[in-house]
Design a protein that fits this description.
Elements: E1 4-6, E2 9-13, H1 24-31, H2 44-57, E3 61-65, H3 68-79, E4 85-89, H4 93-96, H5 101-106, E5 109-113, H6 122-127, E6 140-146, H7 159-171, E7 175-180, H8 183-190, H9 194-198, E8 203-207, E9 218-222, H10 224-236, H11 245-257, H12 262-278, E10 292-296, H13 301-310, E11 313-314, E12 316-317, E13 323-327, H14 334-353
Parallel strand pairs: 2-11, 4-5, 4-6, 6-7, 7-8
Antiparallel strand pairs: 1-2, 3-9, 8-9, 10-13, 12-13
Bound molecules: pyridoxal-5'-phosphate (PLP).
Pyridoxal-5'-phosphate (PLP) binds at residues 67-69, 72, 93, 146, 150, 179, 181, 207, 209, 218.
């Protein structure tokens, strides 16, 4: 059984897929990595990861970075110019959780689009395209899509909707960025390779420290021309490293061993969502398209989280004031799900009866 220790008790930690511990085999891959000076492009493991990562994401070239936030911020910096406008769903990570980075690092005006399950339509994009000859308005230049969409509950963009957004960007000369921190979850849910989704975009972010189970690491991918700029951006952000093959080895290991198993996380989330709904909790099992289950716990969310914690289950808050989320990942087993299916209704239905 699982997962992390809290106050000396074993707990089922469903707060996030970022909490995974590197497996013994991943640690072995890390320990035996060949390394060199990454800034000089002399780290063979990083070079191999960038080569494979580009292919994996359907792009010409990829650049290894410490975090997905840095990947997003570099992408926006190289796609726009100060004074340009960026369109993004209003609860996207770029909008809510990157400290206003697009304004700080790139001088971008960010416009939040009202999404449905984290998605928006070509019409919404077209409605925000501004007159580029105007001396008053910030011209719209970049559209960023998040897939899967974190705060919507790990929701997935259907392929035809992604294609339609990309086509709209092409038609209107807009750059298209994909925050694919959880792109492997999205691709798994759609039954396609990540490259099928990534290839249409100008830039793509992939994170290794979420469902892929690495301690850290991310990629930005795009055309070779854009990746020259991304490498400069990486240095500007202080992300150019040295013997980073130590970390890239974990990412290569994950590409070999942790991609196919993402489907198990999804099956466990589905089982959890269906079980909680059957137990009478306010859960829409259809929402659990990937590895997130959203539970509406009512107005006193803090009390619900405490009560769950007493029962040994950790969940986290979401942008929706009465909703918590339970996230499945590498360190959550089938047994953990069965245990959670007993503990969560016990904890929450007791609260409801009070
Ligand atoms: C959709 C999305 N993008 C980007 C990030 C940023 O990842 P990192 O914490 O590696 O910077 C996250 C992290 O939760 C995320 O959910």
């Amino acid at each position: 059984m699982t997962t992390s220790k809290l106050q000396n008790e074993l707990v089922i930690d469903l707060r996030s897929d970022t909490l995974t511990q590197p497996t013994a085999a991943m640690r072995e891959a890390i320990a035996s990595a060949s390394v060199g000076d990454e800034q000089k492009r002399e780290d063979p493991t990083v070079n191999e990861l960038e080569r494979r990562g580009a292919e994996f994401l359907g792009q010409e070239e990829a650049v290894f970075l410490p975090t997905a936030t840095m990947a997003n911020q570099i992408a926006l910096q190289i796609l726009g110019r100060p004074g340009d406008a960026l369109l993004v769903e209003r609860h996207a990570h770029i909008m809510l959780s990157e400290l206003g980075g697009p304004a700080v690092h790139s001088g971008l005006l960010t416009i939040g689009l009202q999404g449905t399950s984290g998605r928006f339509s070509p019409d919404q994009v077209v409605a925000e395209i501004r007159d580029r000859t105007s001396v008053h308005v910030a011209p719209t230049r970049i559209v960023a899509v998040e897939n899967t969409h974190n705060s919507a509950g790990g929701r997935v963009w259907p392929l035809d909707e992604i294609d339609a957004i990309v086509a709209t960007c092409r038609e209107h000369d807009l750059a298209a960025h994909l925050d694919g921190a959880r792109l492997v979850n999205a691709a798994t849910a759609c039954g396609v390779e990540p490259a099928r989704i990534g290839r249409g975009f100008d830039t793509v972010t992939l994170c290794f420290s979420k469902g892929l189970g690495c301690p850290l690491g991310a990629l930005i991918a795009g055309s070779s021309e854009l990746m020259v700029k991304a490498r400069r951006g990486k240095h500007f952000f202080g992300g150019a490293m040295r013997q980073a093959g130590i970390v890239a080895a974990a990412a290569l290991y994950a590409l070999d061993h942790h991609v196919d198993r993402i489907a198990d996380d999804h099956a466990r989330a589905r089982r959890l969502g269906e079980g909680l709904a059957a137990a009478g909790l306010s859960v829409d099992p259809g929402q659990a398209e990937t590895n997130f289950v959203q539970i509406d716990v009512g107005p006193d969310r803090a009390a619900a989280i405490d009560r769950l914690k007493e029962r040994g289950v950790l969940v986290s808050t979401t942008v929706h004031p009465s909703v918590v989320r339970a996230v499945t990942h590498l360190d959550i087993s089938d047994d953990d799900i069965e245990t959670a299916l007993e503990a969560i209704p016990d904890a929450l239905l007791v609260l409801e009866r009070r």
